[in-house]
Every structure is written in structure tokens, then in C-alpha cells.
């Protein structure tokens, strides 16, 4: 009964636009708390935010660029949510200090809400927590949500499954062309920003990207990823980049692709929970794992035994 009363109170404040209720809900969901899950079920699917994923190697200037894009969105009267995802920092909460300091100018703006996710171990791990946090921000009524990831391997590919539009930020100086051409990363980007374009090698990087894109498979609806030179520190090229984000959103609408994105996001969330369950169960399945290592069981037999404890392996 107390649970129900708490839920009613939290939902009421959340729907009334209380930012503290949003912060509480995000904390509960990130921790995998039943109250957070219950609230999420009630409010999910309300709101239609434009979700933009921003990824790229550390040092590419993603936070500064995100900061500039927030300004562009606010100029247009949009209410903006930002999720700064740092999968590399499970203990120190490294995302929190760095991103919050860089985006401090928005601290007093009630139309901007910035949240760092730097936790592990919640239901679905960080990936599941990110999608759940997105759903909460969307239900809260944000017009645009930026999801910025630190960009280490898997998180670059994951973000494309979570966002409607994926922006890959590269810089001329960091050997980024080589990084970007690694399997999977070129394919996920809907737009490219060559940031710190004032450094040597900017034009060359754009030419390398163009050549690589000519060889990559066509995108849904025939979208051809554009490349924008930017200098986030001065704001140069940022307005054009923002217009590019808008153009991609229009493309998704015109070709009926948005609903597919929503379904893929939900599929990704369910997969994340399954993966986290599997990870937790194998941690405490020493005997099964030992039998696999000794060749007594196949990995499939061990996995089935974990999924269905009543089906005892031979």
C-alpha cells in the first residue's frame, strides 16, 4: 500500500513538471528499483522527443559541441534534455564532473536538464538504464534529447540503436579517420562533424570520409550522411550542423522510419536486461562454468540450465 501511495505521489509530481520528481525517477530507474519500473510503465510512450546520439573518440570535443547544439535548440524555443553516458567510469562517476562543468552555462536555464549516467549493475546495466532514462525524459516533455557517450567501442554502436539520429564527431589531429573506418562505426553515423576544423588536416579528413562513404551501403530511405566542418570552441559551423540534424529528422518522418526506431529502442532495452541477467547468473554459477571448462557440458547446455533451473543438465 505504501508503494502505491509513493507511486501516486511521484507520478503526480512528475506529470506536474516537478524537476525534483524527474531526478528522483531517474535515480530509481537507474538503480533498477521497482518504484522506478512501475512509474516508467505508467508514463512511457508519452511525448515525442527528437533523440540525437552524439559519439566519437575522447578528446573530439563532443561536450563542447553538445553545449553549442543546446544553445541552438534553445534559440528555437526547444526544451532540451541531455544524458551524458560514461560507460568507462563505473566507480568514480567521471562523467558527472567533466560534463557538468563544461555545460555549466545552462545551469540556471530551466529549459535545459543535464544528467550523467555513470553506473553499472542496474537491471540491464548501463545500456538498459540509458533507454529507461530516455523514456522518462521524453515523458517529461523535452522536445529534444541529446545522448552523449564517451565513445569506447561498443557504446558507439549501442547509441545508434537508442537514438533517432546519430552524429559522429571526429577531429583532424587524432588519427580519427582510421578509427572511424573500423567495422561498424562508419555504418552507424547519420551525420559527421569534423570538429576542431581549424587544426591542420581538416580538409583531408573530409575527403577521406567522402571516399569511405561512397563505398558504404545505402541508408534507409536513401539518406546520404552529410559532413559538417565545425569549431565548437567558437561556434563556427554549428548552426549548419543543427540544420543537418533537422533535415535528418524530416527524412525519418517523410519515409515513415521513426516508428521502427522506437521499436528498435525497446528491443535493445529488453536485450540489455537479458544480458544483465545472464551476466549476474553466470557470476554465481561456478559449478556449471567449471563443467563447461572441463568439456562435460556445452555452453548451450549450461545456458539452458541457468534459464530453466528445473531442466537439470546431465
Report a brief summary of the structure.
The chain is an alpha/beta fold. It has 14 helices and seven strands. It has two domains: 1-43, no CATH class; 46-255, Rossmann fold, CATH 3.40.50.300.
CATH topology of the largest domain: Rossmann fold
Helix content: 40-55%
Using only CA atoms, what is the Rg?
21 Å
Ends: how far apart?
A: 45 Å
Share of residues in strands:
5-15%
Class per helix and strand makeup: alpha/beta
DSSP summary, beta strand count: 7
**Could you report the average pLDDT, rounded to the nearest whole number?**
82
CATH top level class name of the largest domain: Alpha Beta
- Summarize the main sheet: 7 strands, parallel
Q: Looking at the structure, what is the overall shape?
A: globular
Give the low-confidence spans.
Answer: 90-99
The CATH architecture name of the largest domain reads: 3-Layer(aba) Sandwich
How many DSSP helices? 14
CATH homology superfamily of the largest domain: P-loop containing nucleotide triphosphate hydrolases
Which series of helices and strands comes N to C? HHHEHEHEHEHEHHEHEHHHH
Query: How many structural domains?
Result: 2
Describe the structure.
The chain is of the alpha/beta class and 314 residues long. It has 2 domains: 1-43, no CATH class; 46-255, P-loop containing nucleotide triphosphate hydrolases (Rossmann fold, 3-Layer(aba) Sandwich), CATH 3.40.50. It has 14 helices and 7 strands. It has helices at residues 2-15, 19-30, 34-43, 62-75, 94-102, 125-140, 154-162, 176-180, 185-188, 202-215, 238-254, 258-283, 286-293, 299-307; strands at 50-56, 80-85, 112-117, 144-149, 165-170, 191-194, 227-229. It has a 7-stranded parallel sheet, sandwiched between helices. β6, α10 (202-215) and β7 form a beta-alpha-beta unit. α6 packs antiparallel against α12. It is globular. Mean pLDDT is 82; it is low at 90-99. InterPro entries: GTPase/Isobutyryl-CoA_mutase, GTPase_ArgK, P-loop_NTPase. It comes from Thermus brockianus. Pfam families: MeaB (PF03308). Belongs to the SIMIBI class G3E GTPase family. ArgK/MeaB subfamily.
Amino acid at each position: 500500500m505504501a508503494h502505491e501511495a509513493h507511486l501516486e505521489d511521484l507520478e503526480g509530481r512528475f506529470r506536474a513538471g516537478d524537476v525534483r520528481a524527474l531526478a528522483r525517477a531517474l535515480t530509481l530507474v537507474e538503480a533498477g528499483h521497482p518504484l522506478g519500473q512501475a512509474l516508467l510503465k505508467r508514463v512511457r510512450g508519452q511525448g515525442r522527443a527528437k533523440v540525437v546520439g552524439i559519439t566519437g573518440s575522447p578528446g573530439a570535443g563532443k561536450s563542447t559541441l553538445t553545449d553549442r547544439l543546446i544553445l541552438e535548440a534553445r534559440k528555437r524555443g526547444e526544451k532540451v534534455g541531455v544524458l551524458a553516458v560514461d560507460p568507462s567510469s563505473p566507480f568514480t562517476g567521471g562523467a558527472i564532473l567533466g560534463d557538468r562543468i563544461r555545460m555549466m552555462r545552462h545551469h540556471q536555464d530551466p529549459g535545459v536538464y543535464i544528467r550523467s549516467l555513470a553506473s553499472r549493475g542496474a537491471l540491464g546495466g548501463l545500456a538498459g538504464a540509458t533507454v529507461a532514462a530516455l523514456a522518462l525524459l521524453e515523458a517529461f516533455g523535452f522536445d529534444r534529447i541529446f545522448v552523449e557517450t564517451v565513445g569506447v567501442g561498443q557504446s558507439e554502436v549501442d547509441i545508434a540503436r537508442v537514438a533517432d539520429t546519430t552524429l559522429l564527431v571526429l577531429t583532424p589531429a587524432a588519427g580519427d579517420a582510421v578509427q572511424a573506418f573500423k567495422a561498424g562505426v562508419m555504418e552507424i553515423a547519420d551525420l559527421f562533424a569534423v570538429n576542431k576544423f581549424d587544426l591542420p588536416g581538416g580538409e583531408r579528413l573530409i575527403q577521406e570520409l567522402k571516399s569511405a562513404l561512397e563505398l558504404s551501403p545505402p541508408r534507409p530511405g536513401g539518406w546520404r550522411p552529410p559532413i559538417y566542418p565545425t569549431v565548437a570552441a567558437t561556434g563556427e559551423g554549428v548552426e549548419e550542423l543543427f540544420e543537418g540534424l533537422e533535415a535528418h529528422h524530416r527524412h525519418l518522418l517523410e519515409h515513415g522510419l521513426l516508428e521502427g526506431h522506437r521499436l528498435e529502442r525497446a528491443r535493445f532495452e529488453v536485450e540489455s536486461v537479458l544480458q544483465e541477467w545472464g551476466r549476474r547468473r553466470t557470476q554465481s554459477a561456478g559449478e556449471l562454468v567449471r563443467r563447461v571448462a572441463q568439456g562435460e557440458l556445452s555452453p548451450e547446455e549450461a545456458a539452458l540450465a541457468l534459464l530453466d533451473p528445473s531442466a537439470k543438465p546431465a
